[in-house]
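Good morning,

Both structures are done.
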Amino acid sequence: MPLNFRRFYTGHSDRLGTLGYRWSHSYDTRLTFADNNDVGVVFGAGGEEFFDGNSSWVFTRRTRGSSTNSSRTVTEHSRSGRS
C-alpha cells in the first residue's frame, strides 16, 4: 500500500501547522469544537465537514446550505493537546 503525503499552501490562513505558517498536509486532519456540542472536521487539503451534536454525544452530519449561528465560539484542539 503506497503512502501518499501531499502538502498544501493556504495563503489566506494564519494557522501555524507542523510544516509552518499557512502550510498543511494530507495527514493534518483536526477537530473543532463549538460551545453548543457541534463538531467540525477540518482536513489538511482544506475541506470541512460539520456535525450537529447533542448532550448525549450523538452527532448528525450537517447538510450543505443549512444555517449556522455565526456568533458561536469554536475552539481548535490538536492531538498534542495544545490549542
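Second structure follows.
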Amino acid sequence: MSVVLETTEDSRGRRPLPPLAAHRQQLIDSELRRFGSVSTQDLAARWGLSCSSITRDLTQLAAQGRCQRIRGGAVRRSPGARATF
C-alpha cells in the first residue's frame, strides 16, 4: 500500500515540503480507488503530517461525496450511494 508522494522543495532547494491540501486529496482519492480504505494515522506517518491535516482532507472529501468517513480514516463510497444529511 504505497503511493509515490511528490514533494516540492523550499525556495532554497532544501528540505522537501509536504504536499498541498488539493494534491493530498488527489492522492487520498487514488488510494481509496486502489485499496478501498485509508487510515488517518498511516497517511500522516507516511507523509510527515499531523493526523489533523489528514482528517481535514478526509472531511472535505466526504463533503464532496468522494468517500465516507469512518473512525480512524475513510472508505470508498459506493458508486450508487447517496449522501444523507
